[in-house]
Amino acid sequence: MTLHSSLSKQLPSDLDVQRLPKHVAVIMDGNGRWAKQRGLPRILGHRRGVDTLKSLLRCCKDWGVQALTAYAFSTENWGRPHDEVEFLMTLFERVLRRELKEMVDEGVQIHFVGDLEALPLTLQTEIQRAMAATQENQTIKFIVATNYGGRREIIQACRDIATQVLHQNITLDDIDESLFERHLYTAGILDPDLLIRTSGEMRVSNFLLWQMAYAELYVTETLWPDFDQHEFHQALRNFQTRTRRFGKVS
Questions:
Q1: pLDDT lower than 50: segments of the chain
Q2: pTM above 0.85?
Q3: Which H or E run includes 83?
């Protein structure tokens, strides 16, 4: 990956390696506003946002975060202008093709979660190729939520479980949180410890609704293309000030 040369591989001394989040999720908001502020087309904001995501993935890998999930395209994003949606689909495809070899070499295991069958066939092909090529990698998990919606995910899980009950493969008494999680797009992936949202918006936007039950939330006014290593450092520092009780008394 071509990343900013200023990235430091060493974990900052004011962070406790034992208290890092194992899994960080990001809502990458503000690409369009970033471009508009500079008098540029929105698509250039998305292109810059890809560079930011690559930098963050490298930083997570170097600092010891085990998994990174990026909200790349929601089920609601189809409502954006046609040209922008078309550009995003083409951008996803090109980035996958261009970056796959380096992700393989650096031990990145890539997963895509969402309703992937609705994506262009050429993009589906690149997605399957990338997941197959990196499935044995162990350095860091990189989860890309594409055509993803938390409500749709939960409804689909309910349908799958109901079908199993209907076919008498399971009983109602078999249904618990563990079974339900096995029917989510994210089956087998640890829930996020930290959710970062850029651009100051105070909402989760239908993202990982089940999985975020006890995630710590961090919102910054910084627009996504400007979210650099320093910003990530501040998010981790803030995370390490939190007392995570999971509904219990400390």
A1: 1-6
A2: yes
A3: helix 82-105
